[in-house]
Design goal:
The protein is about 35% helix and about 20% strand. It is of the alpha/beta class. An eight-stranded mixed sheet has the order 14-21-20-16-17-18-19-15. Strands 22-23-24-25-26-27-28-29 form an eight-stranded parallel beta barrel, surrounded by four helices. α3 packs antiparallel against α4 and α4 packs antiparallel against α6. Bound molecules: phosphoenolpyruvate (PEP) and magnesium ion. Magnesium ion binds next to α24.
Length: about 750
């Protein structure tokens, strides 16, 4: 028999039907709502390769050094070709088609899903490594089954089996053919907390078919439910831009924009949440251990599409310290790594080492991403992560900035994290202390949940003080706008548009060449508008492009970037903008149109100016696109020592404000590369030389009636706040997580100043 019906499959059949089918069979048997279907067994695949005589060539083709990416690619191509271009024997084909026809009227849409025999094992989640095809009908059913077989030899699968030491010829693949659930909504559910195992059900939900959630293409709604009381503890309703649906005409799965009225709408009704909780408990009871479930809702019914054990909960087995002495780890027993605490919070999870080869959909909810350095295209995965650990980078690197905005604990600049830590290992990341320890968190406090709002509203729990010095917030990704606005900050002190541009995946030049300048302007408008809207009428200071060439190099078109010996001192900020005036004016055009649309709360800021002549030139470009500098608030960053020392000339050009970029100012005053972990202990924004130059600049600006601000990382530091408030700075812009503390610190210093003056 080439096929077996799911009704007849049990977990003991794992070796013949693979993990996915075995689990679907178990769920069906337990009376859970599973769409009906059958499995093309692993034996069918094995017989196919053996009888066709391609097995030996197949296994020798994939016996390569998987660190050699070219060899890996060739191996994958050859294996794929061997499998899909070999005819499936007629009797097997007939049996598959006959089983399909008996499922309905012969036109049933089915999902064709790989079920590898080494997949979903309790101690090594291979989830998502093999293909799934949705909305398949008879015409291409057998081809799709072959594609699933071939996906056993994707580059990623070959790579992973090598890493985990699974011999290629011992892994087989079965294929599940299951009635398609035309999902109106779908998502994933953890029946217990994925890091701590606490009785908390976590549900993620989005519109349409499930892949959008599983692949991280969309930020789903997140519901955390106390399993004992059934109460929803926290709920985060995300803005859902994309969904996957069946195209009515072609039957194919297509990506669509979510209609406006549904984007910010809560996906699940209370009744659906209740039903999911009920099913979650049933599944966990059935297996006797926490499960990671994929589900879908269609026609008012909730279906279970997959269930596998959660592999990230620490059972304490590899944790030598018991609960009582786990805290006493300062002797280094549990200590694995140290770096810079870049985003606060303590949390535990399973390590996912992400190299350039990997696809990010391996990163599951609650994993700890460990990577050399994060890249713009990692942001969706970073949102799912419990924590982030990097080899490289400083407090102002991409990883640090984005983690802080997402509220995900992070430790950066650890040196060899990607070598020291092992995939699947359970660790605890302390984003305040900058440490990574063995085992799960040992505290009564719940771990910080990414995307939930335990820490989302720093100000909400305490009354926000009214301070004379304004307290603003920094934003780099529009996704963080709502969270930033909720802090109660007096505005945005820095909106870095380069993260918006980097997320386009192409350099601006390449993007414009491919999509046209209008599309570029619209992309900028849309990102900036999200922030301007979230804060309206509070002011939003948006900065023109400032990405060094090494960041652009990671993008499509990056090969055209100049090679620089030291990008930090090179072609970036206003220097690049003035050298590429056309591109610069596209940015300014976006701001002009937003002003015309009524977002008069926008202010324009130019980065990395050297002196008054840079400012004059930038001003001319503003005028050239039709922005009246007299009518709008605009200013510059003070990041070079030259701009601080020559601030009078800058003031003469008519700026309304200047803002200290202490990340750059410190690196230029102290000659310490801000992203170089070898000298990070020398990077000190409170160094007297840096404070001197800032103090003098504030004095000069106060005399000229120009506002002063800080938007570098140091604005979140209490000692810097103390110094600047005493010097008379107009506003301080802090990270989202620091706004509440900065409000308090400003309040304290201002009160002390008043007291001192009357004593
Ligand atoms: C700075 O230099 O302090 C700053 C805020 O700009 P960026 O970190 O983007 O260079
Ligand atoms: Mg800077």
């Amino acid at each position: 028999m080439a096929v077996a019906w799911l009704d007849d499959v049990r977990s003991t059949d794992l070796g013949t039907v693979g993990g996915k089918a075995a689990s679907l069979g178990e769920l069906t048997e337990a009376g859970l709502p599973v769409p009906p279907g059958f499995v093309v067994t692993a034996g069918t695949y094995r017989t196919f390769i053996e009888e066709a005589g391609i097995d030996e060539e197949l296994f020798s083709a994939v016996d390569v050094d998987s660190e050699d990416s070219e060899a890996l690619e060739t191996a994958h191509e050859r294996a794929h070709e061997l499998i899909v271009e070999t005819e499936v024997p007629e009797n097997v084909r007939a049996e598959i088609v006959e089983a399909y026809r008996s499922m309905g009227d012969g036109e049933t849409f089915v999902a064709v899903r790989s079920s590898a025999t080494a997949e979903d094992l309790p101690d090594a989640s291979f989830a998502g490594q093999q293909e799934t095809f949705l909305n398949v009908t008879e015409d291409d059913l057998v081809d799709r089954v072959q594609e699933c077989w071939a996906s056993l030899f994707s580059q990623r699968a070959i790579y992973y089996r090598n890493q985990k030491g699974f011999p290629h010829d011992e892994v087989d693949i079965a294929v599940v053919v299951q009635t398609m659930v035309d999902a109106e909504k779908s998502g994933v559910m953890f029946t217990s907390h994925p890091s701590t195992g606490d009785p908390r059900i976590i549900i993620e939900a989005a519109w349409g078919l499930g892949e959008a959630v599983v692949s991280g293409a969309v930020s789903p709604d997140n519901y955390v439910v106390d399993r004992t009381t059934g109460e929803v503890e926290t709920m985060t309703v995300a803005t859902k831009k994309l969904m996957h649906v069946k195209d009515e005409e072609t039957g194919e799965t297509v990506e669509r924009e979510v209609p406006d009225d549904k984007r910010d709408q809560q996906v699940l009704t209370q009744a659906e949440i209740d039903r999911l909780i009920e099913l979650g408990k049933q599944v966990e009871d059935h297996y006797g251990e926490p499960q990671d479930v994929e589900w879908a809702v269609a026609g008012g019914e909730v279906y279970m599409l997959q269930s596998r054990p959660i592999t990230t909960i620490d059972d304490g087995a590899d944790d030598s310290a018991d609960d009582a002495d786990a805290d006493a780890d300062d002797d280094g027993d549990d200590h694995l790594l140290s770096g810079l605490g870049a985003s606060p919070g303590i949390t535990s999870g399973a390590v996912r080492i992400v190299t350039k080869l990997d696809h990010l959909d391996q990163v599951s909810e609650g994993d700890v991403i460990v990577t050399e350095m994060t890249m713009p295209d990692m942001v969706p995965a970073m949102k799912r992560a419990a924590a982030i650990v990097t080899d490289e980078g400083g407090m102002t690197s991409h990883a640090a900035i984005i983690s802080r905005e997402l509220g995900v604990p992070a430790v950066v600049g650890c040196g060899g994290a990607t070598h020291t830590l092992e995939d699947g290992q359970i660790v605890t990341v302390d984003g305040e202390m900058g440490t990574v320890r063995k085992g799960a968190v040992d505290t009564d406090e719940p771990a910080v949940e990414p995307g939930t709002d335990d820490d989302d509203v720093p100000v909400g729990s305490r009354p926000k003080p009214i301070t004379a010095t304004e307290v603003k917030v920094n934003v780099s990704i529009p996704d963080a706008a709502e969270r930033a606005a909720k802090t109660g900050a007096d505005g945005v002190g820095l909106l870095r548009i380069e993260h918006l541009v980097l997320s386009l995946g192409k350099t601006p030049e390449r993007y414009i060449a491919d999509e046209g300048s209008e599309a570029y302007v619209k992309e900028l408008m849309s990102g900036v508008r999200t922030v301007a809207e979230a804060f309206y009428p509070r002011p939003v200071r948006v900065r023109t492009l400032d990405a060094p060439t090494d960041e652009f190099r990671q993008l499509e078109g990056g090969e055209d970037e100049p090679t620089e010996h030291n990008p930090m001192l090179g072609y970036r900020g206003i220097r690049r903008s003035l050298d590429r005036p056309e591109l610069f004016e596209h940015e300014l055009e976006a701001f002009k149109r937003l002003y015309e649309q009524g977002y008069e709360n926008l202010e324009i800021m130019f980065p990395l100016v050297t002196d008054g002549s840079d400012v004059a030139a930038a001003r001319e470009h503003m005028e050239a696109v039709g922005i009246d500098p007299e009518k709008r608030d605009w200013g510059v960053m003070i990041e070079t020592p030259a701009s601080a020392m020559g601030v009078e000339d800058i003031v003469d050009e008519g700026v309304d404000f200047v803002s200290f970029g202490t990340n750059d100012l410190t690196q230029y005053v102290l000659a310490v590369d801000r992203n170089n972990e070898h000298v990070s202990d020398r990077f000190d924004e409170l160094h007297p030389a840096v404070l001197d130059i800032m103090g003098d600049t504030i004095d000069a600006c106060r005399a000229a009636g120009v506002d002063t601000s800080i938007c570098g990382q140091a604005g979140s530091h209490p000692k810097m706040v103390d110094f600047l408030v005493r010097k008379g700075i107009t506003s301080i812009s802090a990270n989202i997580d620091a706004v509440a503390d900065v409000f308090e610190e400003v309040d304290r210093v201002e009160s002390r100043l008043i007291l001192d003056s009357v004593r």
